[in-house]
Amino acid sequence: MSAPNSAGLSAGFNAAPLDAAPFDAAPFSPAENAAMQAALAAAAQGPRGANPLVGAVVVGTDGTLLATGYHRGAGTAHAEADAIAQAKAAGLDLRGATIVVTLEPCNHCGRTGPCAQAIIEAGITDVVYAVDDPHDPAAGGALTLRAAGVRVRSGLAADAALDLNRRWFDAVATKRPFVTLHIAQTLDSRIAASDGTSQWISSPESLADNHALRGRIDAILVGTQTVLIDNPRLTARNADGEADGKQPLRAVMGYRGIPDDAAVHGADGNVLHLATRDPREALDQLFASGVRHLMVEGGSRILSAFLAGGLVDELIVYLAPTLLGSGTAALEGLGITTLADAQQWEWDPASGGAVQVLGRDLRLHLRPATPATPDATSTSSDTTPHRTGADTAAGGN
To answer: What is the Cα–Cα distance from 150 to 378, expressed in whole angstroms?
Structure first.
């Protein structure tokens, strides 16, 4: 399955609700345009995953940008609430102000309150947002705002907002978890030596970063082969090696059973065996179990299957300055035989930056590349380039 490009997303998600009447089609002001650019930049600072990247900027009646907020991950304040809180902390009166948001304000009570209501209570009278929220439980904020007398306009920088979260939109549309694929490898793309040893390819700093990510996801997945060979715990742990904070569901994919004494069972038994080798079927089962953000950690066969299926939304690679020359390769193959069919990835500035130095390692953060738009005047029969892939967690047990 390949993810849609921005044009495909635009066709699938409206820039304005179909039932938005009465709709004020007034043009966007220079201040609103500037605010949306600031909101998009702020949104990119958040972590990708089960929630979209969202930014919000409050604009004063004189066009001054008063406060900027963004969503920092599950359970934290939404972008609108963050911006409103910052403005109030500065003693600003928001009555008559405008809030510019990269996504339709939500309309539901989850771990945080509905943003539409927070906007109404703040006295904000104008809302400008880029694209509708396609997630059923959260959608409908625009209608709530209009019913309260708030002027609502949408469609500003819609293409940029769609591009920012295109893989999240795709995951929502196909009712599957957002998939992060994690690799810890050597310079020559090995995740284990010839004798099977893999601890520790990554630096302590990379391991700490990986465990922090484990604490934010809903589930972590490996294959039965990894369980049988490495016997991983797959828990989120602190620097002392102790379980720390929220723990992900531990999913094991494959036909072979999980040994009763496998470490993956842990003390809580929060383990799910997925008796399949089909990654899409595994995602369907996980989604039905409530998983919205999955991290795939290995082994090579599992990682390759998810990449070959176009089911990876985010790629995080910990690259160690180490050479093995032989051993277990990160990937077994993606069914690619010619360079023209190579998967393509692009650097992702979200969640701390595309490239970071962690101890002696490099942390690479990538997302599937946007397919090139064919030249309308070209007579070439070349097809749109494919998206990309890479793989696994060595030493992240």
So the answer is: 47
Asked if the peptide bond before residue 196 counts as cis, ω within 30 degrees of 0, the response is no
CA atoms of 206 and 199, how far apart (whole Å): 13
Residues with Cβ within 8 Å of residue 175, at least 6 apart in sequence: 287
Which secondary structure element, helix H or strand E, spans residue 94, and what is its range? none
Cβ(346)–Cβ(167) below 8 Å: no
* 238 Cβ neighbours under 8 A, 6+ residues apart: 211, 244
Whether 148 contacts 358, CB under 8 Å? no
**What is the DSSP code string of 12-29?**
HS-SS-TT--S---PPPP
Long-range pairs, 353-356, Cβ under 8 A, ≥24: none
Residue 177 one-letter amino acid: P
Helix (H) or strand (E) holding 222, with range, is strand 219-223
In eight-state DSSP terms, residue 245 is S
The token pair at 297 is 């950690």
Residue whose structure tokens are 């209608």: 143
| Calpha distance 27→97 (Å, rounded) | 17
The pTM of the full predicted model, rounded to 2 decimals, is 0.81
Q: Cα–Cα distance between 352 and 195 in angstroms, integer?
A: 35
Q: Is the pLDDT of residue 10 over 90?
A: no
Render pLDDT for 281-293 as a digit per residue (tens, 0 to 9). 999 999 999 999 9
Strands (DSSP E) contained in the chain are 55-59, 65-70, 98-103, 126-131, 151-154, 178-185, 190-192, 219-223, 249-253, 271-274, 293-298, 314-319, 328-329, 345-347, 355-358, 361-368
Residue 267 corresponds to which tokens in the numbers above? 């003390």
| Tokens at 21, concatenated | 């009447």
Three-state secondary structure string covering 138-165 = CCCHHHHHHHCCCEEEECCCHHHHHHHC
Q: Is 32 considered catalytic here?
A: no
Q: Which of 32, 80, 104, 314 is catalytic?
A: 80
Distance CA 359, CA 347 (A): 20
Contact 202, 396 (CB under 8 A): yes
pLDDT digit string, tens, across residues 183-237: 999 999 999 999 888 878 999 999 999 999 999 899 999 999 999 988 999 999 9
Rounded CA-CA distance 302/391 in Å is: 9
Higher model confidence: residue 22 or residue 346? 346
